[in-house]
Amino acid sequence: MPLQLFGHPFSSYTWKALIAFYENGIPFTFRNLEEPGAAEELEARWPLKLFPVLAEDDRTVVEATAVIEYLHVHHPGPVPLIPADADLAVQVRMLDRIFDNYVMGAMQVPVADALRPEERRDPAGIDEAKARLDKIYAWLDAHLAGRKWAVGSRFSLADCAAAPSLFYADWVHRIPEQYANLRAYRARLLARPSVSRCVEEARPYRGYFPLGAPDRD
């Protein structure tokens, strides 16, 4: 059975996995969860129904980071997303968690809040999430000084995580002009072919964004 990736084109974590496939030209079948039967097959493999989920024969891999690690081990390509240098690999994995937990995680708070009924909205929670984004934006801007990519000189797992998290975080809480390093990094990510492909494939679904997709990007 060829590799199958279950996900949705507008999903940030699905992007993260797709970027790894596109970077290395790995053949696979994309199972868009809007297609008949895909959601049921996903649930049979992963009852929590969270995505992306990778399937190969009788193996199921959940969580985008683990999907990319699996591809690195079993389907290596010309762009190694996990450095061979052990110390660099630790840094890459650290930045991967920073982007997922502190950028993507904070970004999702206002998005989830917008999906709730009015009486269950949490303005204080939104303020706290945006304050966390301000703090991580400042940290990332300093970290990226003099760097092209998140770690070292090569595109990596950390950048796969950074692309969707910064893409959507900037929609939710705009990266301030003063953070020129971070803004330039986001622009470099969006110009990367693997990332721009995800942006274009997701474009038809922008109406799903509960806060209203901005007229940019």
Question: Would you write up a description of this structure?
Answer:
This protein has helices spanning 12-24, 38-45, 64-74, 86-114, 123-143, 157-172, 180-191, 193-202, and strands at residues 4-7, 29-32, 53-56, 59-62. By secondary structure, the protein is an alpha+beta fold. The protein has a four-stranded mixed β-sheet with strand order 2-1-3-4, sandwiched between helices. A hairpin with a 2-residue loop joins strand 3 and strand 4. The termini are far apart.
Contiguous uncertain segments of 5+ residues: none
Q: What is the gyration radius calculated from CA atoms? A: 17 Å
How confident overall, as mean pLDDT?
A: 97
Strand order in space, largest sheet: 2-1-3-4
Described by strand count, sense and barrel closure, the largest sheet is: 4 strands, mixed
Q: What does the overall shape look like?
A: globular
- Helical stretch count? 8
Strand content: 5-15%
Distance between the termini: 36 Å
Structural class: alpha+beta
**Helical proportion?**
55-70%
- DSSP, total strands: 4
N-to-C SSE series? EHEHEEHHHHHH
Question: What is this entry, summarized?
Answer:
The protein is α+β, with helices and mostly antiparallel strands and 217 residues long.
What does the secondary structure layout of this molecule look like, with pairings?
Blueprint: E1 4-7, H1 12-24, E2 29-32, H2 38-45, E3 53-56, E4 59-62, H3 64-74, H4 86-114, H5 123-143, H6 157-172, H7 180-191, H8 193-202
Parallel strand pairs: 1-2
Antiparallel strand pairs: 1-3, 3-4
